[in-house]
Amino acid sequence: MREPRQFCNRLDGKVAIVTGAGSQGSGEGVGTGKAMALLFAGEGAHVCLVDREAARAEDTRARIEAAGGEAFVVAADVTRDEDCRRIVDQTVERFGGVDILVNNVGIAGQQGDFGNFDEAAWEHMFFVNLKSAVLMCRHAVPAMIGRGGGAVVNISSIAGIMAHGTFAYGPSKAAMEHFSREVAVVYGRQGIRANTVAPGHIRTPLVAGLLPESLRETRRKVGPLGVEGDAWDVAYAALFLASDEARFVTGQQIAVDGGVTATGPMAAHSLIMER
Asked: Are the CB atoms for 192 and 145 separated by under 8 Å?
């Protein structure tokens, strides 16, 4: 897996909170939260690494500090309001404020119809994928305003753009994208920008353990570029949106998907049939 080798101090002096900052799964590479945290720290940010299990984020912290950066780990459940408040309070205490919030926590759900509809699972999906971002913003946005503004980057999915046969996952990600726009409108005059990154077919250690090789090949071929994405592709999009280079960008969504959402059904069929 490729990793960034050169940095340009694009986040010099900024303070970032990244939720889901550890990697899950045993495959090669890193997860999106870990990639974003490593990249942000490499670009000069001080990073609060949030994960429900501290051990998953400790390797991220160790790698940041070994490269000369600053980071600390907070074990927290971001579906709990008191935990979200604690994350922000500890970040302000440690680094003096908050400039960037990346809401990266999410879970996936099974495909199906009303025949196997599980109301509790549906509610849990929205609880984790959407409410976690709402609660983190609830506490981080005021801290950002106290610093003169900041950037919220929400990580959704192309499942929020086009249907994937999931009654809960796709709608929860679509809601997250709209939530970003609401934050952008409500808090724009106070210096807050809010945008969304929608990853497509991204290879991470967790995905590597879940997908059979045949499905992985189909995912690769359905995209016009014919290559597989990785966590660094997502991280670089998030870096742009978090940086001052995106000072005039808010309420927007970037699909990091190799062109999948731009491809019609007949074109996708042709691409899959190609070698």
From this structure: yes
| Architecture of the domain spanning 15-205+228-260 | 3-Layer(aba) Sandwich (3.40)
Residue 193 β-bridge partners: 151
**pLDDT at position 1 over 60:** no
Is the separation of the CB atoms in 156 and 102 below 8 Å?
no
Per-residue pLDDT at 16 exceeds 80: yes
Q: Is 169 a catalytic residue?
A: yes
**Alpha-carbon distance 152 to 17, whole Å?**
10
Beta strands 253-256 and 192-199 are: parallel
- Please state, in angstroms and as integers, the Cα–Cα distance from residue 143 to each residue in 100, 151, 164, following that order: 10, 11, 37
pLDDT tens figures, 88-144: 999 999 999 999 999 999 988 777 778 888 889 889 999 999 999 999 999 999 999
Return the closest-CA partner of residue 100 out of 212, 262, 239: 239
Pairing of strands 150-155, 46-51: unpaired
Q: Which listed residue (40, 95, 167, 169) is catalytic? A: 169
**CB-side neighbour CA atoms (13 Å) of 97:** 15
Rounded to two decimals, what is the model's pTM?
Answer: 0.93
